[in-house]
Amino acid sequence: MWRAVPAGRRLLRPLSAAAGDALRPRPPPRVPGAPRGGGAAARGAAGGGAGALGAVAERHRAADTVLPKFNIDFVVALLRQENAKDICVIQLPPEIRYCNYFIVVSGSSTRHLHAMAHYLLKMYKHHKEESDPHTQIEGKETDDWLCIDFGSIVMHFMLPETRETYELEKLWTLGSYDDQLAQITPQSLPEDFIFGLTPNSSDHLETT
Known about the structure:
It contains 8 helices and 5 strands, in the order H-H-H-H-E-E-H-E-E-E-H-H-H.
Protein backbone atom coordinates (compact mmCIF):
# COMPACT_ATOMS: atom_id res chain seq x y z
CA MET A 1 0.00 0.00 0.00
CA TRP A 2 0.94 3.65 -0.22
CA ARG A 3 1.86 5.32 3.06
CA ALA A 4 1.45 9.05 3.43
CA VAL A 5 4.37 10.97 4.88
CA PRO A 6 3.92 14.30 6.67
CA ALA A 7 4.99 17.57 5.02
CA GLY A 8 7.33 17.97 2.06
CA ARG A 9 6.56 17.42 -1.58
CA ARG A 10 5.46 13.91 -2.29
CA LEU A 11 3.51 11.88 -4.80
CA LEU A 12 0.81 9.70 -3.33
CA ARG A 13 -1.60 8.69 -6.05
CA PRO A 14 -3.17 5.45 -7.26
CA LEU A 15 -1.69 3.46 -10.07
CA SER A 16 -2.94 4.47 -13.49
CA ALA A 17 -4.84 1.96 -15.58
CA ALA A 18 -2.24 2.15 -18.34
CA ALA A 19 0.56 1.04 -16.05
CA GLY A 20 -1.53 -1.81 -14.67
CA ASP A 21 -2.50 -3.05 -18.11
CA ALA A 22 1.14 -3.02 -19.16
CA LEU A 23 1.88 -5.86 -16.76
CA ARG A 24 -0.92 -8.12 -17.96
CA PRO A 25 0.06 -10.62 -20.68
CA ARG A 26 -1.85 -10.26 -23.90
CA PRO A 27 -2.54 -13.01 -26.47
CA PRO A 28 -0.87 -12.55 -29.85
CA PRO A 29 -3.14 -10.84 -32.40
CA ARG A 30 -4.88 -12.96 -35.00
CA VAL A 31 -3.99 -12.10 -38.57
CA PRO A 32 -7.10 -11.35 -40.65
CA GLY A 33 -7.69 -14.05 -43.19
CA ALA A 34 -5.35 -16.55 -41.57
CA PRO A 35 -6.67 -20.13 -41.21
CA ARG A 36 -7.82 -21.16 -37.72
CA GLY A 37 -6.88 -24.84 -37.72
CA GLY A 38 -4.12 -27.08 -39.00
CA GLY A 39 -4.14 -29.09 -42.16
CA ALA A 40 -3.10 -28.15 -45.64
CA ALA A 41 -4.75 -24.74 -45.51
CA ALA A 42 -2.80 -23.81 -42.42
CA ARG A 43 0.48 -24.76 -44.04
CA GLY A 44 -0.16 -22.17 -46.73
CA ALA A 45 -0.80 -22.29 -50.43
CA ALA A 46 1.76 -22.67 -53.14
CA GLY A 47 4.04 -19.80 -53.98
CA GLY A 48 5.21 -18.98 -50.44
CA GLY A 49 1.79 -18.31 -48.89
CA ALA A 50 2.92 -19.52 -45.45
CA GLY A 51 5.96 -17.28 -45.52
CA ALA A 52 3.86 -14.25 -46.42
CA LEU A 53 1.38 -14.97 -43.63
CA GLY A 54 4.25 -15.38 -41.16
CA ALA A 55 5.78 -12.06 -42.18
CA VAL A 56 2.44 -10.27 -41.81
CA ALA A 57 1.85 -11.83 -38.41
CA GLU A 58 5.32 -10.79 -37.26
CA ARG A 59 4.75 -7.19 -38.33
CA HIS A 60 1.40 -7.05 -36.54
CA ARG A 61 2.94 -8.52 -33.41
CA ALA A 62 5.80 -6.03 -33.43
CA ALA A 63 3.40 -3.13 -33.89
CA ASP A 64 1.17 -4.25 -31.02
CA THR A 65 4.04 -4.93 -28.61
CA VAL A 66 4.76 -1.46 -27.24
CA LEU A 67 6.89 -1.68 -24.12
CA PRO A 68 5.82 0.62 -21.29
CA LYS A 69 8.25 3.30 -20.22
CA PHE A 70 10.14 2.84 -16.99
CA ASN A 71 8.28 5.64 -15.20
CA ILE A 72 6.95 6.03 -11.67
CA ASP A 73 3.61 4.32 -12.35
CA PHE A 74 5.30 1.34 -13.93
CA VAL A 75 7.81 1.07 -11.06
CA VAL A 76 5.07 1.11 -8.43
CA ALA A 77 3.19 -1.55 -10.36
CA LEU A 78 6.30 -3.75 -10.37
CA LEU A 79 6.81 -3.23 -6.64
CA ARG A 80 3.22 -4.19 -5.90
CA GLN A 81 3.63 -7.26 -8.08
CA GLU A 82 6.67 -8.26 -6.01
CA ASN A 83 4.76 -7.79 -2.71
CA ALA A 84 6.76 -4.76 -1.56
CA LYS A 85 5.63 -3.51 1.85
CA ASP A 86 4.78 0.05 2.83
CA ILE A 87 5.61 1.78 -0.47
CA CYS A 88 6.47 5.45 -0.03
CA VAL A 89 7.00 7.69 -3.07
CA ILE A 90 8.36 11.21 -2.56
CA GLN A 91 8.48 13.73 -5.38
CA LEU A 92 11.46 16.00 -4.93
CA PRO A 93 11.32 19.68 -5.94
CA PRO A 94 13.22 20.71 -9.10
CA GLU A 95 15.77 22.75 -7.16
CA ILE A 96 17.09 19.54 -5.60
CA ARG A 97 19.18 18.20 -8.45
CA TYR A 98 19.29 14.62 -7.25
CA CYS A 99 16.35 12.77 -8.79
CA ASN A 100 12.67 13.24 -9.57
CA TYR A 101 11.28 10.51 -7.33
CA PHE A 102 12.61 8.99 -4.13
CA ILE A 103 11.12 5.61 -3.20
CA VAL A 104 11.43 3.68 0.05
CA VAL A 105 10.00 0.17 0.38
CA SER A 106 10.25 -2.59 2.96
CA GLY A 107 10.84 -6.29 2.46
CA SER A 108 10.01 -9.24 4.67
CA SER A 109 13.53 -10.69 4.56
CA THR A 110 17.00 -10.25 3.07
CA ARG A 111 16.09 -12.65 0.31
CA HIS A 112 12.97 -10.63 -0.46
CA LEU A 113 15.00 -7.40 -0.67
CA HIS A 114 17.48 -8.88 -3.12
CA ALA A 115 14.74 -10.53 -5.18
CA MET A 116 12.89 -7.21 -5.59
CA ALA A 117 16.08 -5.34 -6.47
CA HIS A 118 17.13 -7.98 -9.01
CA TYR A 119 13.69 -7.93 -10.63
CA LEU A 120 13.63 -4.12 -10.91
CA LEU A 121 17.09 -4.14 -12.48
CA LYS A 122 16.02 -6.79 -14.97
CA MET A 123 12.91 -4.85 -15.95
CA TYR A 124 14.86 -1.61 -16.28
CA LYS A 125 17.33 -3.18 -18.70
CA HIS A 126 14.42 -4.55 -20.72
CA HIS A 127 12.38 -1.32 -20.87
CA LYS A 128 14.96 1.46 -20.75
CA GLU A 129 15.63 3.69 -23.72
CA GLU A 130 19.00 4.44 -25.26
CA SER A 131 19.19 7.83 -23.56
CA ASP A 132 18.52 6.41 -20.08
CA PRO A 133 21.54 6.25 -17.75
CA HIS A 134 23.20 3.15 -16.38
CA THR A 135 22.12 2.03 -12.94
CA GLN A 136 24.20 2.40 -9.80
CA ILE A 137 23.80 -0.08 -6.94
CA GLU A 138 24.84 0.21 -3.32
CA GLY A 139 24.50 -2.20 -0.44
CA LYS A 140 24.86 -5.44 -2.39
CA GLU A 141 26.90 -6.95 0.43
CA THR A 142 24.51 -5.94 3.23
CA ASP A 143 21.61 -7.91 4.66
CA ASP A 144 19.17 -5.12 5.51
CA TRP A 145 19.47 -2.42 2.81
CA LEU A 146 19.86 -1.97 -0.94
CA CYS A 147 19.82 1.20 -3.01
CA ILE A 148 19.44 1.48 -6.79
CA ASP A 149 19.89 4.76 -8.64
CA PHE A 150 17.96 4.68 -11.93
CA GLY A 151 18.72 8.31 -12.71
CA SER A 152 15.34 9.98 -12.33
CA ILE A 153 14.25 7.45 -9.69
CA VAL A 154 16.23 6.43 -6.60
CA MET A 155 14.93 3.40 -4.74
CA HIS A 156 15.77 2.10 -1.27
CA PHE A 157 14.93 -1.47 -0.22
CA MET A 158 15.09 -1.88 3.56
CA LEU A 159 14.08 -4.25 6.30
CA PRO A 160 11.42 -2.72 8.58
CA GLU A 161 13.73 -2.32 11.58
CA THR A 162 16.45 -0.68 9.46
CA ARG A 163 13.92 1.65 7.89
CA GLU A 164 12.66 2.68 11.29
CA THR A 165 16.20 3.45 12.42
CA TYR A 166 17.21 5.72 9.54
CA GLU A 167 13.80 7.35 8.84
CA LEU A 168 14.64 8.38 5.28
CA GLU A 169 11.10 9.64 4.71
CA LYS A 170 11.55 12.32 7.36
CA LEU A 171 14.95 13.26 6.02
CA TRP A 172 13.52 14.05 2.56
CA THR A 173 10.19 15.56 3.62
CA LEU A 174 10.92 17.60 6.74
CA GLY A 175 14.07 19.25 5.38
CA SER A 176 17.28 20.01 7.20
CA TYR A 177 17.48 20.95 10.87
CA ASP A 178 18.27 24.57 9.98
CA ASP A 179 15.21 24.76 7.73
CA GLN A 180 13.02 23.47 10.54
CA LEU A 181 14.42 26.05 12.95
CA ALA A 182 13.76 28.82 10.45
CA GLN A 183 10.07 27.87 10.37
CA ILE A 184 9.67 28.17 14.14
CA THR A 185 7.99 31.40 15.17
CA PRO A 186 10.21 33.26 17.67
CA GLN A 187 8.57 33.83 21.04
CA SER A 188 9.79 36.20 23.74
CA LEU A 189 9.92 34.98 27.33
CA PRO A 190 8.03 36.85 30.06
CA GLU A 191 10.08 39.21 32.19
CA ASP A 192 9.57 37.24 35.40
CA PHE A 193 10.91 34.13 33.65
CA ILE A 194 14.24 35.69 32.71
CA PHE A 195 16.98 35.22 35.29
CA GLY A 196 19.30 38.14 35.72
CA LEU A 197 21.69 39.59 38.23
CA THR A 198 20.58 42.67 40.15
CA PRO A 199 23.05 45.47 40.93
CA ASN A 200 23.29 44.24 44.53
CA SER A 201 23.59 40.56 43.63
CA SER A 202 27.38 40.79 43.69
CA ASP A 203 27.17 41.24 47.44
CA HIS A 204 25.94 37.70 47.77
CA LEU A 205 28.79 36.21 45.77
CA GLU A 206 31.71 34.84 47.71
CA THR A 207 35.19 34.94 46.31
CA THR A 208 37.85 32.41 47.10
